Amino acid sequence: MSFFDGCPGSKRIKEPFPESIKCACGREIEIWSDEIETTCPYCRQKARRRIPGSCLDWCSMAKDCVGVEKYEKYKKYFQGKDRE
After folding, report:
1. For residue 52, is it within any domain?
2. Could you tell me the pTM of the whole model?
3. Is 83 part of a structural domain of the chain?
């Protein structure tokens, strides 16, 4: 695999797919693999996935790999925030 095929760690960002997470209200809700948070359709609260860290934090090619828009959205969200 060459770099141009893509980094395996970025696949969930570049080719998003639906996943389930549990909202604070106790219901399972859908979130896409490239999203950090979503709004629960049942209670309207923000539900956030746990992200322990990502290659976007340290890789010098991250912006080129996943694209500027997704990279900037990720960085903006985690700027100054501690992860769970």
Report:
1. yes
2. 0.63
3. no
Q: How many domains, in total, are found in the chain?
A: 1
Residue pointed to by tokens 């694209």: 67
Place of tokens 């709004």: 39
Distance between CA atoms of residues 43 and 74, nearest Å: 25
Residue 56 lies in a domain: yes
Residue 31 in domain: yes
Q: Could you report the per-residue pLDDT of 57-69, keeping only the tens digit for each?
A: 888 888 888 889 9
Local structure of 25: helix, strand or coil: coil
Dist. CA 68–CA 75, nearest whole Å: 10
Task: Cite the DSSP H helix spans in the chain.
Answer: 11-14, 62-66, 68-78
- Closest CA relative to residue 49, chosen from 77, 8, 10: 77
Q: For 10, phi and psi rounded to 5 degrees?
A: -95, -5
- Give pLDDT tens digits for 22-49: 999 999 999 998 888 899 999 999 998 8
